[in-house]
Write a structure and sequence with these properties.
alpha+beta, Cyclophilin, eight-stranded antiparallel barrel, 9 helices, 46% helix, Cucumopine_C
Length: 314
């Protein structure tokens, strides 16, 4: 039996998960390619008692599941899922989101209570305290002292390679430490003063509404296209700007200047790419940077306003 150790550095909780044979191809990928790694721990905001975190590798985006549970709400507590949104998630209590999901493992029964404790702690961190919770995942029994962010493939053009290196380094710096631009935005330090009538709460709402689909849908979708279709490089060059340029420009206006710069330079770099592999290297690096921003924005957003919108009783 292959087992993972999942550790939350704060609140110092570690659980063991058995990897199962429901999706052997996905399990092999996790075991042989992904671990060990670390990430910022997120808590679900609309699904229920569910933890998830961003993976540092684009492989899950385009790797199809062999089996999906039709209704994840029926999964036992402790079920571990792998998502094409580049997440590993763990159910630790009641869920409302019934959408299909691909199981890859299960927290061992003796550790489910500890998992629930970690879940409650992570909810409080996301909803109220904003404490950063780092999650570390490794093969059980392995001693791991370092969790480096995997480097993307290299390309031939030195200017494009320089851009990829810059995006990778920016992602690495903020992998478990919040990006300064997002910290400034959530403190109201926005140079453009985006936000009608001298307030920035609506800007934070629109930030969430733009950065999430830019990463999950547009950029991840392009990564999936280059890995699962035979679209020629020229077609990929033509369609890419239409998916990513406009939202990135808006996000630059709201305060994410590095994202706007990286996206604009990536669009310009498309003509220098030699083949589809170089396209993958460029776009997957931009996608990971964007999805990293999304994880931090979801952590920093003032979700405690939710107490003002309780569901009606009865």
């Amino acid at each position: 039996m292959r087992q993972l150790e999942i550790e939350w550095v704060q609140p110092r909780i570690t659980v063991t998960a058995d990897l199962t044979d429901d999706n052997p191809d996905l399990v092999d990928m996790v075991w042989n390619r992904l671990v060990p790694y670390n990430s910022l721990q997120n808590h679900a905001l609309v699904s229920g008692d569910h933890l998830y975190h961003l993976l540092p590798d684009p492989e899950p985006i385009h790797r199809a599941a062999e089996y999906k549970m039709r209704d994840r709400t029926e999964a036992p507590d402790g079920t571990v899922f792998l998502s094409q949104l580049q997440h590993i998630g763990i159910k630790y209590g009641p869920l409302t989101e019934y959408l299909p999901a691909a199981p890859i493992g299960h927290v061992v029964p003796d550790d489910v209570d500890a998992l629930r404790s970690a879940g409650r702690y992570c909810w409080d961190a996301a909803y109220r305290t904003k404490e950063v919770v780092e999650v570390r995942v490794r093969r059980k029994g392995d001693r791991v002292d370092d969790y480096p962010l995997p480097r993307p493939p290299r390309v031939g053009d030195p200017d494009v390679q320089r851009l990829i290196d810059e995006m990778h380094d920016a992602t690495r710096r903020s992998w478990t430490d919040p990006p300064e631009e997002l910290v400034d935005m959530h403190a109201g330090r926005i140079g453009s003063r985006a936000g009608s009538r001298d307030q920035y709460f609506s800007t934070l709402v629109f930030l969430n509404g733009e950065v999430r689909p830019l990463g999950y849908n547009a950029l991840n979708g392009l990564v999936r296209l280059v890995r699962t279709t035979d679209l020629p490089l020229e077609t990929l060059r033509e369609i890419t700007p239409g998916f990513i340029r406009t939202p990135a420009e808006f996000l630059g206006y709201t305060g994410l200047h590095a994202l706007e710069d990286f996206t604009g330079r990536s669009v310009k770099a498309l003509g220098a790419l030699e083949d589809r592999e170089e396209y993958f290297a460029l776009i997957s690096t931009l996608a990971l940077y964007t999805n990293m921003l999304n994880t931090w924005n979801l952590h920093l957003f003032p979700w405690d306003h939710g107490k003002e919108y309780p569901y009606p009783r009865g």
